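quick one before i forget lol
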Amino acid sequence: MLYTRSHQRDFDGWASDGNYGWSYREVLPYFLKAESSYVNVSSNTFETPMINSVLEVAREFGYRAINPFDKVQLGFYRASTTTLKGQRNSAARAYLHPVRNRRNLHISMNSIVTKILIDPDTKTAYGVQFTKNGVSHTIRTKKEIILSAGVIASPQLLMLSGIGPRHHLESLSIPVIKSLDVGYNLHDHYGYTQLKFNLRNSGTFEPHKTIAQQFDEYISNGTGPFSSPAGFDVLAFMKTRSSDLPSDYPDVELMFKTVSLDKSTTNKQLEYLGLQDILQNSSLLVDPNDDTLSIVVLLMSPKSRGRVWLNSSNPFDKPRMDPNFFDHPHDLTTVIEGIQLGIRMGESRSLAKYGPEVDRTPIAGCERLAFGSDEYWRCSIRQQGSALGHQCGTCKMGPKSDPGAVVNPELQVHGVKNLRVADASILPGPLAGHPNAALFMVGEKVSDSIKEYWNGCVWKK
């Protein structure tokens, strides 16, 4: 739900690598189109007493206030989200729901695509096989197929259909249509989620309201702490001391979680709604005597790359996936420095009135190491890290001269006619931001590419 356009250098870098049409200047109109028509970008309606103090930390550390639409993402801002009345406004809600009754749109539910049909002689995609309620079906296309199955399933389907690394497909007895580096170049924003501060003076609760009252406010008005995206309300894009990136480009993001719910105020109403058990396991609920501030440290520009590949030629077998975090040693150094930066910020003058003290509870498996040492952080990062769901890159976009590219800048699969990929898998490199916004842009941009290819009809600002 978090909305950040990412840094202009991301897109200019893609363009300089041969991806024509993908410079910041060229993709900006598609961000603007999405934001002005379909995608609802909102500011949080709920703020804790602590949020202004967190924003003051930015000035204390020499960072300026920015917003998610700035072309240089280096600084702090209040989180913006793709929400509407406090609820997630997904791509389906924004784009599909308003047009779901169109006569030329057909959506098949409970369906699993098993193969893209490709003529092995002409290298032309002409249909799709799928199963629906256990029955196999085939659909043929008059024009082209657009694969938007995501960063894991898109490469899986290409490989099942004969597009992928030759040695891998042949090892599974899958006839090779086109040998491409499908499944490689997997990258994600690793997140360290265990940096917490115990507060002597609470700054995260809304006083004088029970959880049931706050939930009622959310259901009635879409406001209150339940409208906050997982409790995160301040994002900070920053640089570590060892950064080897340009001076205006961040290598870490710090996400400040200042929203908490007082679990001592739960009552029977939540049981009737079936929420009691769910909330008891939520990180939003804390004891008022143990109020905390959490800072999640994200690695923005990982140098490590992972891979997705097939377990077998059976389309119902889940593929294998290795994120390969910290294959490059610089990534681990960056996260350690990001944690140390987060500690300095949490203990800064701007937050002193809350009495924050870093939680020194050792991470399981790291108890014998001195808390705060580099050895301790290396252990803790490996034990308690998290994939952020920002996986990208497994069907990399690039020119024909790029040996790792799967699709061209029009998102057409290299060497195969009438087949495109349009999802997070095409992003060639990490973004200095959450991919949510960029993927709306990709959808808008490829729509124009498709219309131009078939009809010469392109949206103009």
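fyi The chain has a mean pLDDT of 92.
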